[in-house]
Design a protein that fits this description.
The protein is built from 7 helices and 8 strands. It has an 8-stranded mixed sheet with strand order 1-2-4-3-5-6-7-8, sandwiched between helices. The longest helix has 30 residues. The protein starts with a helix and ends with a helix.
Length: 308
């Protein structure tokens, strides 16, 4: 019985991981794994968005954008994961399509610069510029910044940088298994984690920093100033090496006065909301509920402003 309790969930997680590879990345011609912003990404043919998606560039960085259903709906600025080495996967496109259909939200999806040709400073400069450009036509009170894994850490770092530069902060953060410390990770959890290996992650993290102090908030937002950040929802599985760092991050956010909700997937792995499994579908419904709640807050604020 003890063997079954410990190892059967591991086997199930492995099967889910294999399913993600088979179902989500089976056609490299449609879901190219590019390594820099210089290589164009295409939206897979099997993914359909409800409204037209336009493509443009910000200083050579490819950006995809779909308008919201109306001006009361939020717009998600999404930063994809991939260890700062890989661009969008089919799992990202599928999740974003699903959430946008459930909420009517808009989407902004940059193909930001990646290793090995690019590093953190270049990527942050371009994505911060993109955010500044968005503010010219979309109020910050309608913007949600969201990301998974490396993109989740990037999302938190970007939000800290936005606040430090006294730019209007987004209305909400949604972080999926964020990589918040490039020197972190718990080696003792590796036996349960089917995705991540701490030694490899630290090597990529240092390459991404490219000489920047690895504890600098640009690359490790766990060590940044979290005061003044918007309400935040974080999703994490107990069977991912980032779990302890993410719990610490949640505690630091709370200590800084941020309204934070930690969604813990017991015996689930890295980026489980992207899984093509019941746990993933449930998490995506929760994310859609969060986005819809944000819409309600935006509408209430707009009505209040009109009445004043």
């Amino acid at each position: 019985m003890k063997f079954a309790k410990i190892f059967l969930p591991c086997i199930l997680l492995t099967l889910v991981a294999i399913a993600m590879v088979c179902v989500y990345d089976f056609d490299e011609s449609e879901t190219p794994r590019v390594v820099t912003d210089k290589n164009a990404v295409v939206i897979p043919k099997q993914v359909k968005f409800k409204r037209p998606v336009k493509e443009y560039q910000i200083e050579g960085m490819q950006v995809f954008e779909m308008a919201a259903a109306d001006e009361t709906k939020p717009v998600i600025l999404y930063l994809h994961g991939g260890g700062y080495r890989q661009s969008f996967m089919l799992s990202h496109w599928k999740m974003l399509s699903e959430i946008s259909k459930a909420t009517g939200c808009g989407l902004v999806m940059p193909n930001y610069p990646l290793l090995p040709e690019h590093t953190a400073l270049e990527a942050h400069t371009l994505v911060l510029k993109l955010y500044s450009e968005l503010l010219k036509r979309i109020p910050a009170s309608r913007i949600i910044i969201m990301g998974d894994s490396a993109g989740g850490g990037f999302s938190l770092a970007l939000s800290e940088e936005i606040h430090e530069q006294s730019l209007p902060s987004p209305m909400h953060l949604i972080l999926i298994s964020p990589w918040v410390d490039i020197t972190g990770g718990d080696d003792s959890i590796e036996e349960y984690d089917n995705w991540l290996h701490c030694d490899e992650l630290r090597k990529f993290g240092l390459s991404w920093a490219n000489g920047i102090d690895p504890h600098d908030p640009m690359v490790s937002p766990l060590y940044g100033n979290m005061q003044g950040l918007p309400p935040t929802d974080i999703f994490v599985g107990t069977w991912e090496v980032f779990y302890p760092d993410i719990v610490t991050c949640s505690e630091k956010l709370k200590a800084a006065g941020v309204s934070v909700t930690l969604h813990v997937g017991e015996e689930l792995g890295h980026v489980y909301p992207l899984y093509p499994a019941p746990e993933g579908k449930k998490a995506r419904r929760t994310i859609a509920d969060i986005v819809n709640s944000s819409t309600e807050r935006t509408t209430a604020l707009s009505l209040t402003s009109l009445m004043q």
